[in-house]
Amino acid sequence: MDPIVLTHGGTKSPPEWSDGCERAARVGAAVLRAGGSALDAAVAAVRDMEDDGRFNAGRGSCLRFDGITLEMDAGVMESTGRIGAVAALRGFRHPVDAARAALETPHVLYAGEGAALLARAFALEPWEGGASEAMRERHRKIASTWGDPAARRPAWRDADLGRLWNFRTPLPPELRPEDTVGAVVRDAAGRFAAAASTGGAIPMLLGRVGDTPLPGAGFWAGPHGAVAATGIGEEIIRRLACRGIHDRLSAGVSPAEAIRAITETFPGDVAFGAIAVSASESGEHANRSMAFATARP
Ligand code: ASP
User: Fold this and answer.
1) 209 CA to middle of ligand 1, Å?
2) Looking at residues 268-293, what average pLDDT do you find?
3) What are the strands of the beta sheet with 4-11, ordered from one edge?
4) Ligand 1, pocket-test mutation among 7, 17, 153, 180, most atoms within 8 A of CB
5) What's CA 211's distance to the chain center, in Å?
6) Does residue 226 lie in a domain region?
7) Does ligand 1 lie within 6 Å of residue 230's CB atom?
8) Residue 262 within a domain
9) Is there a domain that residue 108 lies in?
C-alpha cells in the first residue's frame, strides 16, 4: 500500500500555518521511512505540532476560563483496535505521548491526576511553562466581550457563569455581567492510525473534556481508514463524527466526501473540520480555514 501522512492544525488555523503542518507530516513520513508503524508516525507528527507554539496543543494550548489553568486532551488509535487517551492532563509537554502510554496499559482513557501519574510512571517530559502570549490575548478578548451575550458562542449565550463557575479561584469581575492538531497515517503494511491533541476550546470550565480524547468523536482508526477531527468538541461528541466518517469510508465513500457529509450535519455557526485516509485515498474538509499538509515517505 502507498504510505501517507496527513496533518491538520485545527479549525480556524490560517493557511499561513501550513508550514507547521508540512513539517509535522514530513516528521511522520520520516518515521515510516525508518520502518516505524502508522501509530509511531501519527504520534511523531502530533508531537511536532505540540511543540510548534502556534497550534492549540502542547505549548500553544488555550487557557481555561480562569485565565490560569491549562488542561490538555489527547487520543491515539490504530486499526488493530488499540486505543489510548488522556483527558484534562496537566504539566506534561507532550499529551500525545501520554495517550500512547495509555495504549500500552489495560485501560483506554485516563483523566486528571491519574493521567498525570501515568505520564510520570512512563517518565514523560514534564512541562511547567504557562500559556503562550497569543492564548493570553485570546483569553483577554473573551473576558472583555463576555458582557455582551451576542458576542458569545451559541452554547454560552444563556450561561449563568456565576452558578457554573467551578474553579478554586473566584470568578474574575470582568466575567461577572478554539484549534487542535491531528494526524492520520496509512503505512506500507496497510495499517491505519490516528492521533489528536488539544488544549481545548475557549471558553472552558474546569474539568471540561472535549472530543479529542474520545474515540469515535475526535479520532478513529479501523479497517477502512483513519480520521481526526477538530472544532467544537461538544457538537463533535454528539455526532460521534470520526466514527461516522469511518462508517462512510467502509461503504466506499471517498475521505473528502465522507467528511463533507458529516460537516453538513453541523450548524453553520459551529466550526468543524477533519482529515482522513482510506485504503486508496486521503482527504480533508472544514467549514472554516484549516491548515493541513500531506507527506509521503
Ligand atoms: N475539538 C477541540 C475541543 O473541543 C477544539 C478544536 O478542535 O479546536 O476541545
Assistant:
1) 9
2) 96
3) 109-111, 83-89, 72-78, 192-198, 181-186, 4-11, 290-295
4) 180
5) 8
6) yes
7) yes
8) yes
9) no
Question: How would residue 138 be classed by pLDDT, with cut points 50, 70 and 90?
Answer: confident
**Residue 212 vs residues 44, 133, 227, 274: alpha-carbon distances, Å:** 17, 23, 12, 12
Residue 120, domain member (yes or no): no
Q: What's the predicted TM-score (pTM) here?
A: 0.93
Q: Which residue has the cell 493570553?
A: 136
pLDDT tops 80 at residue 286: yes
Query: Whose CA is closest to atom 8 on ligand 1?
Result: 179
CATH at 285: 3.60.20.30
- Structural domain range at position 46: 4-59+75-82+178-295
Annotation marks residue 80 as catalytic: no
Please tell me which residue in 180, 198, 230, 263 is annotated as part of the active site: 180
Among 50, 135, 212, which is best to mutate for testing ligand 1, by the most ligand atoms less than 8 A from CB?
Answer: 212
Residue 177, pLDDT score = 46
Summarised one tens digit per residue, pLDDT across range 48-77 is 999 999 999 999 999 998 888 999 999 999
Number of domains in the chain: 1
